[in-house]
Amino acid sequence: AQTVTQSQPEMSVQEAETVTLSCTYDTSENNYYLFWYKQPPSRQMILVIRQEAYKQQNATENRFSVNFQKAAKSFSLKISDSQLGDTAMYFCAFIPSTGANSKLTFGKGITLSVRP
Amino acid sequence: GAVVSQHPSWVICKSGTSVKIECRSLDFQATTMFWYRQFPKQSLMLMATSNEGSKATYEQGVEKDKFLINHASLTLSTLTVTSAHPEDSSFYICSAAPLRTGGEYNEQFFGPGTRLTVL
Predict the structure, then answer these.
(1) Taking CA atoms, what residue in A is nearest to B101?
(2) Using one digit for the tens of pLDDT, what is the confidence trace for B64-111?
(3) A108 inside 8 A of chain B by CB
């Protein structure tokens, strides 16, 4: 079974600054994907970034980047130039590559507040 | 592309009544749909996985007679909360995964969610 741990329940950052959200996971799978999802007050789940475990290069999407440390089973999200619209809950998630009904395993989430 | 809708977005019902929530994939065929439940400020909890034309697979602790799931077509899955009670009040989210076309995982696309309030 997989577990995803987000130990920080809340964080706050000043607008335009950089913030890093932490995530660790545990799995015996060799091939898997990791994700960060954003859930704003509208509660629509939005995929922020995706990392394939077999790729050593860290994924980047505009202001969002990850620090993927496979050996340490760590997957942190860095948000640069924070904007007010980044205020949301952020969930780290894991899915194994194999199996037609592969299920997402979510962390508990972290509430990020961006201060003006 | 890859849009998933849910209807209704918010429903209020009386205790003891049944409520049906629809999840539709608008621009793709979803061989697998997932139903989640989320309480305020908490994570998504998977309730069940449904495949078109077959019975849903429920997660441990989820009452299948309480939460009826029907995945009747490749674009529609429904969740019926039977004999709803106030403790069933929650936010229900569905996601849909298209037929895998050689990719290594089943990407899930999320609906906007349905808020259920049982009085």
Answers:
(1) A100
(2) 999 999 988 999 999 999 999 999 999 999 999 887 655 566 789 999
(3) yes
Cis check: omega of the bond before B40, within 30 degrees of 0: no
| Cβ atoms of B98 and B30 closer than 8 Å | yes
Q: Which of A52, A91, A100 sits opposite B106 (nearest CB)?
A: A100
For B14, how many CA atoms within 13 A lie in the half-sphere containing its CB? 1
Amino acid code (one letter) for A104: L
Picking from A31, A44, A91, the nearest residue to B43 by CB comes out as A91
For B21, the enclosing helix (H) or strand (E) is: strand B19-25
Residue B38 banded pLDDT, cuts 50, 70, 90: very high
- 3-class secondary-structure state, position A89: strand
Residues of B in contact with A34 (CB under 8 A): none
Give me the total of CB pairs closer than 8 Å, taking one residue from chain A and one from chain B: 53
Residue entry with tokens 């079974």: A1
